[in-house]
Design goal:
With 282 residues, the chain is of the alpha/beta class. 48% of the residues lie in helices and 15% in strands.
Length: 282
Amino acid sequence: MALVTLRQVLQDARKRKYAVGGFNVFNFETLGAVVEVAEELKAPLVLGIAERLFKFVDVDTLAAAMARAAQRTSVPVALHLDHGHTYEGVMRAVRWGFTSVMFDGSALSIAENLKKTKEITRIAHSLGISVEGELGYISHCDDVTGITTNEFVPADVVMDFVTKTKIDALAVAAGTGHGTVKGMGGLNIARLAELSNAVDVPLVLHGGSKLSREDCRLVIDNGIAKINIATDMSLSAADRLRTELAKSPSANYIHLMTSVKKGVKDLVRKYMLNFDCISRAI
């Protein structure tokens, strides 16, 4: 199936009340695992890589492999740059043939975030590429306390941001955090419902690792159309390596790669079931 845009897969998810998994990959094993499970379960997919990983991997080679894998699938796949923080990073994804980019200006003032997101969207839309923006507090650290609703951007400001930038999806703060964040106080479902009613674009939940099936259903029912998973995939790979080496310290690397891929596939399968995106490929 041909590559699709983020807008295409998320509009269907929003309409039919399921979430597409935004799975970030970081090597060939995780890439293969995610795509193979999507094929197996006939699930649409957002296949991503975050800009922060550019300094850790041969990103040009991995991006080419992502594009090739997506083109060969029988399910809809949006190729996505996750958390693009720079104009240069976004343009690299454009050159790779990605169909979706995220510009994360959440660390900027709202005015500067709006200005830069609007410009990125203008360029991306001229090329048929979707854009995800981010507005509000989504933690990036390992231990956060004292986060209150005061951290949330008011709904009228969110409406103005979406209207002026013309983005296709919006990542919002709703009590989750990136990584293994503690102390966030749980999901704010009322917040999601408020924003879902306020804006006419699909909402995205970052920090989806560790969400229960019940949590997933709640956020989907209140406007979330994409849930991002990255940390759990990395932790699963590391856990599988430790387990295999404990059982067989002399195990060769080919065996370890195979085992890691299986562990990641099991995790991805669990999340896709929780997202209710099975057999949703259009």
